[in-house]
Amino acid sequence: MTEQEMAVKLAEYGKEIGSLKHRVDDLEEQTQVIQELALSVKELAINMQSMIKEQERYRKTQERIFSRIEVLENEPAKHWNTLTTVIITALVSGLMGYIVTTIFK
Fold it and tell me: HSE-up of 2 (CA within 13 Å, CB side)?
């Protein structure tokens, strides 16, 4: 092999090495982008878990509030039922007392 052939081969190898360096640089950049994407997905998953836990706490709080509201809404109905029972009992007792005193007079 002559010096000129060696120089041509060396120049070809230089071009090929330059092309390979460019491809490696592109792969490194793609790898970096994929790593950043993976980290973003991991962070998103962590945030989703946190949101799910927060929603569960919120749902439990809502259930407690709704049950307390239901108790408060039912309280006047209980008082009304008790009052109605007392009034009916008083009227029946008064009527019975009147009938008994009228009959045994």
Answer: 3
Helices (H), 1-105: 3-103
**Local confidence band at 96 (pLDDT 50, 70, 90 cut-offs):** very high
- Could you list the beta-strand ranges (E) of 1-105: none
- Which residues, 6+ apart, have CB-to-CB distance to 1 below 8 Å? 9
User: Is the entire prediction scored with pTM above 0.70?
Assistant: no
Give strand ranges (E) for 33-74. Answer: none
What tokens appear for 23 in the block?
């491809």
Q: Cβ atoms within 10 A of the Cβ of 43, count?
A: 10
Q: Which amino acid, residue 103? A: I
- For residue 58, pLDDT over 90 is answered with yes
Write the single-letter amino acid at 83: L
